[in-house]
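Final report, closing paragraph on structural work. Over the funding period we assembled a curated collection of sequence-structure pairs, and we close with a single example.
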Amino acid sequence: MKFISAVVAAAIASAPVCNAFSPSSGRSPLRTIQQSTQSQKTSTSLLDTQTDSGPPYSGPASKPILDSVKFPSDMNRLNMSELKQLAHELRWEVIEAVSKTGGHFSSSLGVIELTTALHYVFDMPEDDIIWDVAHQCYPHKMLTGRRDRFPTLRQLNGMSGFCKRKESEYDSFGAGHSSTSISAAQGMSVAKSTLNKRKNNCIAVIGDGAITGGMAYEAMNNAGYLSSRMIVVLNDNGQVSLPTGTQSAGGVKPASQLSAYTSNLLVSKPFQDFRDFAKSFNRLLPENVQDVNKRIDEYARGVVTGGTLFEELGFFYVGPIDGHDLENMVPILEKLRDSDSNKPVLLHIKTNKGQGYAPALAASDRMHGVGKFDIATGIQQKGKAAAPSFTSIFANSLIDAATEDRAVVGITAAMPGGTGMDIFGRRFPKRTFDVGIAEQHAVTFAAGMACEGLKPFCCIYSTFMQRGYDQVVHDVAIQNLPVRMILDRAGVVGNDGPTHHGCYDLAYLGCIPNLTIMSPSDEIELRNMVATCAGFDDGPTVLRYPRGVGYGADKLQNLFGYDLEDGEIPTKGVPLEIGKGRIIRRPGGVHALGEDIAANGSSDSKLGSGGRGAKREDRVAILSLGTRLSESLIAANEVEEMDPDIAVTVADARFMKPLDVDLIRELAKDNGIIITVEEGSIGGFGDHVLHFLSLDGALDNGDLKFRPMVLPDAYFEAATQYEQYEMAGLNSHHIRGTVLRLAEKVEVPELAELEK
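Its predicted structure, as stored:
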């Protein structure tokens, strides 16, 4: 690999994109780089080496060079030997920091040398480096003044796990979703050129997973057309999906033919010999023949490595090179930096995700996202969950459906682990389809399947379904095709922060005709809704559920009032009637449902004789959609314990579309107050209920108070899910407070008094 890299470096020096050089932007050349050219040809590739031979694993006792680098400008004085040592110390700093907090891990380890080289060669923040997705940005943050903030990583009021423009001037562009970096880099390049800025170095770093997204190719097509000066670094690590290796209809290889295309690298022995021979032979020919052979050689390079694809898009293709070889990367990047050419460049580097830490290299997902872990062994500190996760419950319920119906298939967009498709794929590999990071394609792919009689379950995070919105409307809903859209991570998601919250799906999907939208309150309801989706063929369905775990049998019985046979949670779901909710709690508690219900909807014996709920204004209905039902039940119990007059009914809507209008009418007739609760933004479930009540005339007499409790119009930064719902005002004590205020049982301060 080093031999190839040296050849590529020589080729760059003579290539059209590098045929003119300007002074070196204030960076002094590395003498050690020039001195080591010959040794590169015989040394072993860094890709084939590991820093650890076996456990226990440990890093350096001190990090003197990293300690001396607070900002990239501090790297100017380093020689190559010191630069390598800096990379070694930086890698272990990342390992040690993430072991204490958890976070995205192996992606950062894979770009240690690249990050070091980029910050050495380029001059941020005047130059722009855009990290696609940005989950690999930890070493970048450590070299740009934020090393001391890592104990707060992905915590309340702490440092984000992604790049954020408001966090640092060194974060050129915010990210969290994939395939955006090339578009952003091109926009910056065009802006700098238009504004006649002295420097115009814009670098997009994108992985072989993110480059499967169609937006990346839209950007490359336009960049070549406009001849935008920019460098796209393609970080090829063979990790397209999470985890790579999930059994599916495409096998266990990365879910991308493009990844296979770019993995045809200049590493096979025959091709290395061909390149060496071609260059040697070329020097013996007349100059005009050399020019012809040079073009033939460039075409051969493209055919073998994928360069032709990028060159046809207008890019000059360089590589692939060893992404862990600083001695080779630095001079290549320097020549690209100093070129006067405006032709966009694609630099193809090969890296190992998790490089330098054996436990990461051995894991199926390369320890992509981790909790706290023991450095010596790589073992993560995971407490035993009280109940299975909603994701695993969904996956196993889908297996049940697929066992009974051969038409059931599962689709994921490069997130098999996050959506449960890895579990489904182990049981039904030929019915599992991973399309890569391509949500638009996933939705329309599912629509095509539905046209031919399959029952596709298109499993995508709520936040990522935003990327396929037009396909939901144009390809699914307008044609009323029975595509089952499964939205994991609905609501707030915790420490991934605002780019990953599933706050908006109820609003952006609720306005689309033909959709049936449901949300389970607990694990039993989730199983039932999977069965409901599987059996519903009259149009598209949406099933949304949050990140987290179920409640367990005890809580389901004591809080929700379930009567479980032998105290066991049913393992198989039953279809629900479309558009029908349920009352979970009558005044007096959940177990009042099994008693004789009084005319006013309560089992409380005092009702009607001056006791609980005697007045309409003391009767409250909480109508919940989703897993805020548990908080609603807790609030109802607390309110009735606090006040003997208030009677609280709690209902589970189950469906947002179609609404259970009979249930809503009943609640409006029997109660003076209705409160809706949901894990979604303004414009969602509560607005649909309010719209119906208004049109139905339930608000005309002025004897019904209505309040929607939703996620406020704001972005929630990284924190725990509980902390985020606390900030949103959607925990039980917030619901309790809303009930008491509307029932006029507590005094609400006037705004003028608060201002005093």
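The radius of gyration is 30 Å. Residues 1-45, 265-290, 302-306, 595-610 have pLDDT under 50 and may be disordered. We thank the funder for supporting this effort.
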